[in-house]
Amino acid sequence: MENFNVFVPRLLDAREYFSAGHRACQGCGETVAIRQILKAVGRNMILVNATGCSEIFSSPFPQTAWHIPWIHVAFENSAAVASGVEAALKTLERKGRLPKREICVMAIAGDGATADIGFQALSGAMERGHNMVYVCLDNEAYMNTGIQRSSSTPFGAMTTTSPPGRLSKGQKTWKKNLPEIMAAHDIPYVATLSPSYPFDLVRKVKRAVEVEGPAYLHVLAVCPTGWRSPTAETIRLGRLAAESGVFPLYEVDHGRYTINLDPGELRPLKDYLGIQGRFRHLKPEDLEYIEERVQANFEKLRGKARMTAREDRKDRKKTGRPRPRQVKKAARSKK
Ligand SMILES: Cc1ncc(C[n+]2csc(CCOP(=O)(O)OP(=O)(O)O)c2C)c(N)n1
């Protein structure tokens, strides 16, 4: 993982589906994630993109950075539009008006669009069981409109609408736990991803495309502009987030939890928060409070992963093999 020369030419599609020359900020984590996600899926996809940074920096009329079919939709309805596209494809195939083949329908939206304003549409699409992948690019605030807080902004962070001062420590509320909310929808696949771990990211995207039914991917997208972090530290910050337990890398595959990176002892929080200007105002006791909660949350996750391992052991004892994780064979066209 330390050696990027190893992974790029050998293990990833050399073709680019997201071209250079877009207008993202220097050090933007979202663009790295998008590039890796598209390489993992390939050409056979239709992408529905909510309003937000990713749409704005990639499509200034009449130019576009996307080399795949791409639809820009409103801030709030990417999940609803993607579910409509999926239903339309299914119907056209059934009527014989489209040849049967695997097409991945994917929605991409920021954390404001996902956790706040598009939340109802997302919940509905997941509950209805559409065969689609929803990706949240979480840069932890409404960034393109000027760094306003979202419900995914972490506790204590400075944004323009959660300014620290004499009476405030910045963001007052704890980050909404979207992956767990999606797991509670009992959908086939939920995972957290980071472009700082490209192998892990690509594997999870492929798994999300492969499973039958809805999949939800939550990507941590480091944002130097909003986080007030050095642009050259984006990849390292993603790793520090995972190693400190702030953004645990895990997956829930048909209800079974696996932690993909458990460093044992979590890295001190100040390693991660210390290089971000948005946390500069926090006092040592604030860091202590955050660290305690981060550790408690990580422990909860470990408990779920242990429970899965116990169930697997029981299944192995009973049947000689672990419970199979269902994989779709012929995607939509089977129905
Ligand atoms: C209904 C509606 N409200 C507000 C806006 C203005 N607006 C466009 S993008 C955006 C913020 C997007 O934030 P997020 O989803 O987190 O994506 P980011 O820009 O951070 O990538 C806002 C408030 C809008 N386009 N539509």
How much helix, percentage-wise, in residues? 40-55%
CATH superfamily: Thiamin diphosphate (ThDP)-binding fold, Pyr/PP domains
Oligomer: single chain
Q: How far apart, in Å, are the first and last alpha carbons?
A: 40 Å
Protein structure class = alpha/beta
Sheet bearing the most strands, described? 8 strands, mixed
Bound molecules: thiamine diphosphate
CATH class: Alpha Beta
Unreliable stretches covering 5 or more consecutive residues: 3-7, 329-335
CATH level-3 fold name: Rossmann fold
**Side-by-side strand order of the widest sheet:** 2-1-3-4-6-5-7-8
| Overall tally of domains | 1
Number of H/I helices: 12
Number of strands: 8
Q: Overall pLDDT, averaged? A: 93
Shape: globular
